Amino acid sequence: MKGKYTVGILIAIVLVAIGASFYFIMQFFENNPTQPQQPTDYIEGVIIDIQDISILVIGGLSVDEAKNMSVEEALETGNDATWFSLTMDQRNSLKSYDEVKVGYTELDESYPSKGTAKTIEKINE
């Protein structure tokens, strides 16, 4: 009888340990900021400037208008100016004056604003 009691206790302890492990793993993945996040908002515009792994996207301008302006003129004329940080893969597929749609989750409140591009796609390619 003693052996059955001990086996029953061991099985209960193992089940509780498995349940607790499952619970804590789920909590980790639910709140982990390193998990890929889907964009919550988008901006469409023209890439006016590129620096290392950042691009300046300004909305409200056509490609022809942007090509005839300096960066400062484009900032004054356009709207929704934002510097986006990119991954190297994203950066390598872009060039100045591409029309793009950039997905992001949040932007710093400055002008031009700053954020990290979650998704980026070329428009009218």
Features:
125 residues, 32% strand
Describe the structure in your own words.
- By secondary structure, the chain is α+β, with helices and mostly antiparallel strands.
- The chain has four helices and seven strands, in the order αββααβαββββ.
- The chain has a seven-stranded mixed beta sheet with strand order 5-6-3-2-1-4-7.
- β1 and β2 form a beta hairpin.
- The radius of gyration is 25 Å and the shape is rod-shaped.
Question: What's this, in brief?
Answer:
By secondary structure, the chain is α+β, with helices and mostly antiparallel strands.
In terms of topology, how is this protein built?
Elements: H1 2-31, E1 41-51, E2 54-59, H2 63-67, H3 71-77, E3 79-85, H4 88-92, E4 99-104, E5 107-108, E6 113-116, E7 119-122
Parallel strand pairs: 3-6
Antiparallel strand pairs: 1-2, 1-4, 2-3, 4-7, 5-6
